[in-house]
Design brief:
This protein is an alpha/beta fold and 349 residues long. It folds into 3 domains: 129 residues, Response regulator (Rossmann fold, 3-Layer(aba) Sandwich), CATH 3.40.50.2300; 176 residues, P-loop containing nucleotide triphosphate hydrolases (Rossmann fold, 3-Layer(aba) Sandwich), CATH 3.40.50; 30 residues, no CATH class. 42% of the residues lie in helices and 17% in strands. A hairpin with a 6-residue loop joins β11 and β12. The two termini are 45 Å apart.
């Protein structure tokens, strides 16, 4: 998932000081800063769910402690940094006990201290997200026989190719009719590989409007186009050190194919509106229900990209070619339905 911008609220009645802090933090394009002159205006805007609040202790309408209490009632996990001109240790200790994230003095170093605190909070958020993602992955069962059901010769051949693919970083191209389980195969390869603890990012090419696909895949910089209010990383950067799965690659238009080819050749992306080249280490798996060779012959798919993506081809058999797997799958789905609906096991005749 693309990372949301870090939303920072600055509550400060000193207009000049607030603008200095805001400008300094806004140097990071991933930070979105908003200023409030008093406690009441801040509290009215908590529904916007800021990531961090910088709170002046001496406000014209409320004390910092009063505002802090109401923030804690709204969201006890929201980090609040108290900024004060008072070198009062007792006040600082009291505020920290009441749930303030930190207490810093208002002086010429305030903006740097707040920058470092914000950076630490951002890193903690990333770490918590990684832990949550990992816990979610661990909670799933990704062994081949759990993801893909069957024991027919046709599906056993697929299992052998999955095992072969998981031992290397070779590009994999998966071919099969709609509903044959192309994404399940891609997930099986990823979770059996050395990249299993890194991201698996699935992208359905047909689901992304043509005018947005470059930004979605490669990201964009702040101001790159109308509506680009913040920097946004693309799906390739999200998948860095992991696996990106490009489903329905046969439907990608020729212009985007050229840009994808460059990314695969150079192993780097350049965000839309940017000049920085971001190096990548991404395993690529593609899938399609179309005959790419036929598309190449018709001039609808780049030949050089075709050979770049071919890698290890895996052809998925439709269910009609899987023999007794039909009965096995029927049994699995009936048992799964009964378990989810707390019903007695049903028989199949």
């Amino acid at each position: 998932m693309a990372q949301e911008p870090l939303k920072i609220f600055i509550t400060e009645d000193d207009v000049i000081f607030a603008k200095i802090i805001s400008h300094h933090l806004s140097l990071n394009p991933e930070y979105e800063v908003e200023i409030f002159p008093d406690g009441k205006s801040l509290l009215k805007n908590l529904y916007k769910n800021p990531t961090l609040i910088s709170l002046d202790y001496n406000l014209p309408d409320m004390t910092g402690l009063e505002v802090l209490k109401q923030i804690r009632e709204f969201n006890p996990d929201l980090p609040v940094v108290i900024v004060s001109g008072q070198q009062d240790v007792a006040t600082a200790i009291e505020l920290l006990k009441k749930g303030a994230y930190d207490y810093i003095l208002k002086d010429q170093d305030t903006k740097e201290r707040l920058w470092n605190i914000t950076k630490n909070i951002r890193e903690n958020i990333k770490l918590r997200q990684k832990i949550a993602d990992l816990e979610e992955e661990i909670g799933r069962k990704y062994e081949n026989n759990n993801l893909i059901k069957g024991n027919s010769p046709a599906i056993n051949k697929v299992f052998m190719l999955i095992e072969k693919a998981s031992r290397t970083n070779i590009t994999v191209s998966i071919y099969g009719e709609t509903g044959t389980g192309k994404e399940l195969v891609a997930k099986s390869i990823h979770h059996a590989s050395a990249r299993s603890k890194k991201p698996f990012v699935a992208v359905n090419v047909t689901a992304i409007p043509r005018e947005l696909i470059e930004s979605e895949m490669f990201g964009h910089e702040k101001g790159a186009f109308t509506g680009a209010n913040n920097r946004r990383i693309g799906r390739f950067e999200e998948a860095n050190q992991g696996t990106i799965f490009l489903d329905e690659i046969g439907d990608m238009d020729l212009n985007m194919q050229s840009k994808l080819l460059r990314v695969l050749q150079e192993e780097e992306v350049t965000r839309v509106g940017g000049s920085e080249n971001v190096k990548l280490d991404v395993r690529v798996i593609v899938a399609t229900h179309k005959n790419l060779q036929e598309l190449v012959r018709k001039g609808e798919f780049r030949e050089d990209l075709y050979y770049r993506l071919l890698g290890l081809p895996i052809n998925l058999p439709p269910l009609r070619e899987r023999g007794n797997d039909i009965a096995l799958l029927a049994r699995f789905f009936v048992d799964d339905f009964c378990q989810k609906n707390k019903m007695k096991k049903l028989s199949i005749t």
